Amino acid sequence: MTGTPGTLVLAGTPIGDIADAPPRLAQELAVADVVAAEDTRRLRRLTQALGVQPAGRVVSYFEGNEAARTPELVEALAGGARVLLVTDAGMPSVSDPGYRLVAAAVEKDIKVTAVPGPSAVLTALALSGLPVDRFCFEGFLPRKAGERLSRLRDVADERRTLVYFEAPHRLDDTLAAMAEVFGAERRAAVCRELTKTYEEVKRGPLGELAAWAAEGVRGEITVVVEGAVGKGAEELDATELVRRVQVREEAGERRKEAIAAVAAEAGIPKRDVFDAVVAAKNAARSAP
User: Considering Cα of 90, then 94, then 100, then 101, what sign does the dihedral take?
Assistant: First the structure.
């Protein structure tokens, strides 16, 4: 160790096929002073497959000890160590441990670099057959049904392609919620076991995918959903204006604010949206 700060290296690991390991990964594993791994047992299997023996100290770095272990790793970095961070699959920090350590290292002016590697997000996006020019990654949705619906309503009008991670035992509920909020005809793709022996990409409308998933699905899951189809102001009828106001109200906005936001999105006077909401309310009251 020296008085010169070390380097934090974020290394991508295979999401399935070990042959996808980036060439530099074995080299970094061999020279790092400290290897921080999400699961040390999986790291052992990885190093055996790559035919490399870490020369440095191996420590665990996972969700349960991330906050407590970060200061220790920053101290090692400050003392000149080369710290390699690997997670179970894909790039550290992307729905995996790493963000805290990167932020702490940056705050201390410690160099942070990466060994680019496989990414389930980009792989699923590329295979989905959906638009890839603009997208946003939403990670895992909340487990509770109410919170999940609220999160989905927040992006109901998002025009970019959406990418989610999901556990197989929650996939049917998630797809059903997406069909409810986004519409059963919204196109999507369920990418399962990417790069592995039983890789499968199931494409179709959300309603059909929800019915398919109800039979049970196994493996690592990434869901890609088509963005909302943009409409010009002249194409927005009263029903759609009212729906957009309701989505915002259900997400916690006051009606006045929701009406103003929808009017701004559509490029029309607030009075037009207000009148549509009042008319819908009156129609609901007079309905038998």
Answer: positive
